[in-house]
Design brief:
Blueprint lengths: L6 H65 L9 H15 L3 E6 L4 E4 L14 H10 L3 E2 L3 E2 L6 E11 L2 E11 H9 L8 E5 L5 E4 L10 H7 L5 E7 L5 E8 L6 E6 L2 H28 L5 H18 L12 H73 L5 H28 L8 E4 H12 L7 E6 L7 E4 L1 H19 L4 E9 L2 E8 L6 H4 L23 H11 L3 E5 L7 E8 L22 E5 L3 H14 L2 E5 L2 H7 L7 E4 L8 H10 L7 E6 L4 H9 L4 E4 L4 H10 L5
Parallel strand pairs: 13-15, 19-20, 19-21, 21-22, 22-23
Antiparallel strand pairs: 1-2, 1-6, 3-5, 4-5, 5-6, 7-8, 7-11, 9-10, 10-11, 12-14, 15-16, 16-18, 17-18
């Protein structure tokens, strides 16, 4: 290029050359920002879809969990279907479902909670999901369909009910789509953005913006037809709005959550910014031809400052420009400031989307908390009938009737088995939610092993049992919870007894291995193939059994063993040489130093001759009467009340030294009754003891805050109950 000519012409070319790099930098920056904004919008849409998918999956699984829980109820028996109909109606109303439908193993509908028992129920609206639940014997989520009552679209969550390995019923919870719509509407996206939930056939379940079409838009349909578990890309909504869309496919139900975020507003601002930059550059070129004649030094300085500002914008740093005194260049500076603000707004948008994702996670945690509360209530309801049964059996044993000894021992074993099942179920809930309370103290492991061995003797039968404690293992100390370590050994020994056969050899051995104590439980029973060994500690896993399920259970014992051992910083593993060659379970725990000897005198001698007055309050009459009979046989004077008002009337002529109170009482709970006892002249001196089916750590703490001296969980062993009463009766 020939630069010869007047100075002003060369200054014009200099000004033009100075503006050209600025234009290129601004174009690159704006193009980069535009691409970044589209990618950010896609990632934000995918994040919202993931969060909403997690909340929706938790909601669907919570529905299946409630169905599985009521499938265990005693009412679900052929002869008690009328009672189950009432239970189903209460649960459906409480959960906000449209109905609970009970079908037989062929899919024929037996009853619906929205219809009377004598009214014929229609066949399932979604037979495909019913057939899939019957074929797979796994919970399924159905498609959206219009029911016969014309109450609007709904979908079914179906859970097969198995008895002894055989499918007997299918339970279905019919949910209105409004539940899913409420979950979607909580996202609070801009009105130009859309959230949609679709079933397996891409029929709409819920959409944040109402539309007459029940199908995805063509561009979204094309994106979903890839079949991927999740993805993102540009689409156009049913309203014709361009969007950046992210979708997530729920693996269990096959439903899809799609979120489209419209970048239209940001795009217009970006295009306006681009126009401002282009217009400013053109104006600057035109004015440069004029001002180049008069200003040489006044142009180069502002251009350099604009270059620096553009570089700061590209690096994401604040854009700080002083007045440039040239109108066209000042417009460019304004555009750069606007671009910086747009970047700041994009980051703020990401923070808001993160907050929405956090809220969706909180909703999922709330669903898990509801499950834990349900399990606590289930444990209370199951323990209530066990308490009087256990006490009644103890009283029968005290009477010494040999004619019923065999039948009584059968009942004692089965009551104990039911109690272990309830305890295992609640322990799993506490462990998975990290709420299991542990009390670590130094323990001599040989004592724990001997206690577990002694507890096994009554159920050995014809089995041979050996205990081998190595000489150098007598003084092996570990840091642990003696109750939970005893539970570990009891579970392992109980498994060996259950699976090894009636004439098997069971061995319990303790020895030292390096810096660890090793406890081995071995049997010469049927052994385990490799595929069972690989999963034997999995939650709810059970090895294949005969149809009679003579070795049944919930598949919780070994999962609890592994969790408890790991909470003691130990390991547990299973070994077997194969089918018919026995099994071994090896627990290793880290050793600790032996504690200093405690030479305090033994104060554990049982006191004799203690008598006193006890008030028993329980709305379960069997539980109250059997507890009272046990206390009277021991020598206590006992008064019984079956409700709180009757208990307060008893106080008019009876001054108890100990008040044994249930918590779940009608009309007035045990905490309120305790307050009234404190205010009554004949009750203010009584020691309060809670005997209840509620056994969580929060229940124990609440009882302590209400003034209870002890908290016992039903069914409390008779010797423990007597020891607690005896502890709080003044010595005579």
């Amino acid at each position: 290029m020939n630069l010869a000519g007047p100075l002003r012409l060369r200054l014009f070319f200099l000004a033009a050359c100075g503006l050209l790099p600025l234009a290129l930098v601004a174009g690159v920056v704006l193009a980069y920002l535009n691409g970044e904004r589209e990618r950010d919008a896609q990632q934000a849409a995918l994040a919202v879809s993931r969060a909403l998918a997690s909340a929706l999956d938790a909601e669907l699984r919570a529905t299946a969990s409630v169905l599985q829980s009521i499938a265990l109820s005693d009412e679900l028996q052929p002869q008690r279907l009328a009672d189950f109909h009432a239970l189903a109606r209460r649960v459906a109303d409480g959960q906000g479902w449209r109905s609970i439908v009970l079908a037989d193993a062929t899919g024929k509908v037996l009853q619906s909670s929205t219809r009377e028992l004598d009214v014929a129920s229609p066949q399932p609206v979604d037979p495909a999901s019913m057939a899939r639940a019957i074929a797979t014997r796994e919970p399924v989520v159905g498609r959206v369909a219009q029911g016969p009552n014309q109450r609007g679209p709904a979908f079914a969550v179906r859970v097969p009910v198995l008895r002894e390995g055989k499918l007997v019923y299918v339970l279905s919870a019919v949910n209105p789509i409004e539940r899913v719509l409420a979950l979607v509407q909580r996202q609070r996206l801009p009105v130009t953005s859309v959230v949609g939930v679709f079933d397996q056939d891409y029929n709409r379940v819920a959409r944040s913006l109402e539309h007459t079409s029940a199908r995805p838009s063509p561009s979204l349909q094309k994106l979903l037809d890839t079949g991927a578990a999740e993805g993102s890309g540009p689409t156009r909504t049913l309203e014709g709005v361009p969007s950046q869309t992210g979708f997530v496919r729920l693996p269990w139900s096959g439903w899809v959550v799609a979120t489209g975020i419209a970048p239209a507003d940001a795009g217009r601002a970006l295009y306006g910014m681009l126009g401002a930059v282009g217009g400013g550059l053109l104006a600057s070129l035109a004015l440069a031809a004029f001002f180049a004649w008069y200003f040489a030094r006044g142009v180069i300085g502002p251009i350099d400052r604009l270059k620096a500002a553009a570089g700061a914008l590209g690096r994401g740093k604040p854009v700080d420009l002083p007045p440039l005194e040239i109108a066209e260049l000042q417009e460019v500076a304004t555009a750069l400031r606007a671009a910086a603000l747009e970047r700041h707004d994009a980051e703020a948008e990401r923070e808001r989307l993160l907050a929405r994702a956090t809220e969706a996670l909180r909703l999922a945690e709330d669903a898990g908390r509801s499950k834990d509360e349900f399990l606590a209530m289930l444990g209370h309801e199951l323990r209530n009938p066990l308490a009087p049964m256990a006490t009644a059996l103890h009283l029968m044993a005290r009477k010494g009737d040999e004619r019923t000894r065999l039948e009584r021992e059968v009942m004692e074993r089965q009551v104990g088995h039911m109690k272990r099942l309830v305890d295992d179920l609640l322990d799993v809930s506490r462990i998975t939610s990290q709420r299991l309370e542990m009390r670590f103290t130094p323990l001599r492991l040989a004592d724990v092993v001997r206690q577990a061995a002694a507890g096994l003797q009554p159920v050995l039968g014809a089995r041979r049992f050996s205990v081998d404690i190595a000489p150098d293992a007598e003084q092996l100390w570990v840091s642990g919870d003696d109750v939970r370590l005893g539970q570990v050994l009891n579970n392992l020994l109980g498994n060996a007894i259950k699976f090894a056969g009636s004439h098997a050899q069971v061995g319990l051995r303790l020895r030292r291995v390096g810096d660890s104590a090793e406890v081995r439980v071995a049997d010469d029973g049927p052994g385990m193939p490799p595929e069972v060994l690989a999963r034997v500690f999995d939650l709810f896993y059970q090895a294949p059994q005969e149809t009679d399920r003579s070795r049944g259970g919930l598949g919780l014992g070994l999962a609890i063993v592994r969790s408890l051992v790991e909470m003691h910083s130990g390991t547990v593993l299973a070994e077997s040489a194969g089918a018919g060659r026995g099994s071994s379970f090896i627990v290793r725990l880290p050793l600790v130093a032996a504690p200093a000897q405690d030479l305090a005198p033994d104060a554990g001698a049982e006191a004799a001759g203690r008598r006193g007055r006890v008030l028993v309050v329980d709305d379960n009459q069997d539980a109250a009467d059997t507890a009272a009979t046990l206390l009277r046989l021991t020598g206590y004077e006992v008064q019984v009340a079956y409700d709180p008002q009757a208990a307060l009337r008893v106080l008019a002529a009876f001054e108890p030294q100990v008040a044994l109170l249930d918590i779940g009482l009608p009309g007035m709970n045990g905490y309120e009754l305790a307050q009234h006892l404190r205010e009554h002249p004949n009750g203010r001196g009584a020691v309060l003891v809670a005997l209840t089916g509620y056994g969580t750590r929060a229940d124990v703490q609440k009882a302590q805050e209400a003034g209870f001296a002890r908290h016992l969980v039903k069914p409390a062993p008779p010797d423990v109950l007597l020891a607690v009463i005896d502890e709080h009766i003044p010595k005579t």
